[in-house]
Amino acid sequence: MDPIRLRFEVMRELYQSQRDRREQIRGSVATPVSALAFTVFNLSTLATQLNVESWAYPVNFIITLLFFLSVVLLLSGAAFIIGLERGVIYVDPPDLRELVEVEKRLREQGNNDNEAIADQMQDMLSGSYDVAYRWYFAANEQAARDRTQGLHLILFSLGLIVVAFALLPFQQ
Amino acid sequence: MKIFKGLFKRVRLHHKPQEMPPWVRKRLYDNLLALIEEENKAWELLQISVKPRLCIIDEERVVMLRPSDRKRLNLDEQMQRAREDKKHQDED
User: Fold this and answer.
1) Residues of chain A contacting B55 with CB distance shorter than 8 Å
2) Is the pLDDT of residue B21 over 90?
3) Is the pLDDT of residue B90 over 90?
4) B3 in a structural domain
């Protein structure tokens, strides 16, 4: 295999792997969303048990505080999950019109050897795949981080609800 | 009624950036300027006679900015603003 072809194949492979990874990240959003639904259900159960009227009693105050903290954490987690899909801008390799334009420009430069033109175009595409690969890589890393942070916040919120439930028998 | 129209509207082909509100155009152009920088770096590295020019896509708004559309952007006010902002950022 010649070096031009090798560069092209490697970069295309890397670009394709990042595209596939994006789909995997999108698919894995189901886990934090399920955790979110479960936490909302538990919050609603806790809300029915909450005695806010005697909130000055220490245990009632702690349960109320835990309840509101878990609501804030849950909403923050949800914001991370929503943000994962919002405002992302991607780049893709040149379209057909651009490829035709490039070929035309190369022929205008006095190059009529089809092999040489194909080599130049393949190198141009290798460069495009490299830029697109790094662009996708950054977006995917950001998305994966947002998803993990969102999940952590939701689980932390669920943890606070568990503590609040444990304190419920002692409330006034 | 306008909200419902927007919700149920289906796009057959991508939108052009000129059809988008100013803040969406600004976001696109900021990314475009960063992309042009990366394209130049790839061009210098490969030492080829044609510069790689990529398409830029806003999935949320179904907008595609193709390399052939770039020439038309020079007159866009948002593009000029994005260029100025980039210039200030580079100076800092």
Assistant:
1) 91-95, 98
2) no
3) no
4) no
- For chain B, what is the domain count? 1
Which secondary-structure segment (H or E) carries A160?
helix A114-167
Domain region containing B22: 13-91
B39 touches chain A (CB under 8 A): yes
Q: The tokens of B16 are what?
A: 């052009």
Residues of A in contact with B49 (CB under 8 A): 105-106, 109, 120
Q: What is the pLDDT of residues B56-77, one digit of tens each?
A: 998 888 888 999 888 888 778 8
State the residue for tokens 């801008």: A89
* Domain, as residue range, for A116: 3-170
- Convert the pLDDT of each residue in B48-58 to its tens digit: 889 999 999 98
* Residues β-bridged to residue B56: A91, B65
For chain A, the domain total comes to: 1
Tell if the CB–CB gap between A97 and B53 is shorter than 8 Å: no
Any B CB within 8 A of A94 CB: yes
